Amino acid sequence: MAAAAATAATKGNAGGGARAGAGEAGSARKKKGPGPLATAYLVIYNVVMTAGWLVIAVGLVRAYLAKGSYHSLYYSIEKPLKFFQTGALLESFGQDSSLQLQRSFGAKTSRLPILHCAVGIVPSSVVLTSFQVMSRVFLIWAVTHSVKEVQSEDSVLLYVIAWTMTEIIRYSFYTFSLLNHLPYLIKWARYTLFIVLYPMGVSGELLTIYAALPFVRQAGLYSISLPNKYNFSFDYYAFLILIMISYIPIFPQLYFHMIHQRRKVLSHTEEHKKFD
After folding, report:
1. Where is the composition biased (Gly residues) (predicted)?
2. Rounded CA gap, 225 and 264, in Å?
3. Does 14 fall in a domain?
4. Which residues lie below 8 Å from residue 106, measured CB to CB, with a gap of 6+?
5. Number of neighbours of residue 52 by Cβ within 10 angstroms
6. How crowded is the C-beta side of 96, counted as CA atoms within 13 Å?
7. Number of structural domains, the chain?
């Protein structure tokens, strides 16, 4: 799920921070940054994604003002949410360190498309990269889209708001980093607001899956029972429960790692300010 993807993402960030720190000590190998065409592509991609999530945010606000209620706002942004969240399949959450695009680490960070991994622009596993970015797409399509009864749940709005704020900040961060003009406010927001947004998003995701369980069991959604010619069975209900259980080891690891990253990044920025 999204927690798993975010965990993999922050591990990528952690690798970026660790490698950058080693680079400052002269013990890490230097990596080449992207060429001008790759940089231009990444800038355009991140600008488009920033704009897309801003559209979702504006859609939520407009729907709320029109209805006078926060209930069932999902329907007002369902199409752009599916489009831009599915669009994340183009990218790798764990490639922050590969482009070295963040000067505060002594390097810079960005996100690379899965295609870049496939053609060898960066050393990465396409399978692993695909797994990382599929988690949120799974929640959107295999849970929220497939179990229509949960679409009016407040928990859906909870994770949508958390995702929207997170992605606006994150894509803005990458855009300005690529342009070598990263405002401190955006960097601060990326490494601070997760303190609230991550628990908020995870809570919404878990509650949405939990709300879907009775409908999945009743309808036998995506389940395969024996006997059949393939001699294979699959219980989607049990699978979703396993997904929920997986949050127990994953989320604390993600959360405390991000806290560690926050101390490292923001303290490093403060040190630079003192020298300046």
Report:
1. 13-24
2. 51
3. no
4. 20, 21, 23, 24
5. 20
6. 24
7. 1
Residue 241 pLDDT class (50, 70, 90 cuts): very high
Radius of gyration over every alpha carbon of the chain, rounded to an integer in angstroms? 20
8 lies in some domain: no
| Longest CA–CA separation in the chain, Å | 72
- Residues 6 or more apart from 268 whose CB is under 8 A from it? 104, 105
Contact partners, residue 109, CB within 8 Å, separation at least 6: 13, 16, 96, 97, 99, 100, 101, 102, 174, 177
In angstroms, the CA 36 to CA 32 distance is 12
CA–CA distance, 36 with 99 (Å, rounded to integer): 12
At 32, is the pLDDT very low, low, confident or very high (cuts 50, 70, 90)?
A: low
**Is there a contact between 219 and 150 (Cβ–Cβ < 8 Å)?**
no
Structural domain of 82: 36-105+123-273
First to last CA, the chain: 42
The Cα–Cα gap between 179 and 34 comes to 12
Rounded CA gap, 74 and 113, in Å?
A: 28
- What is the value of pTM for the model shown? 0.77
> What is the pLDDT at residue 273?
57
Instruction: Determine, yes or no, domain membership for 116.
Output: no
The tens digit of pLDDT for each residue in 4-17 reads 444 444 444 444 44
DSSP 113: E
Active site residues: 198, 205
110 occurs within a structural domain: no
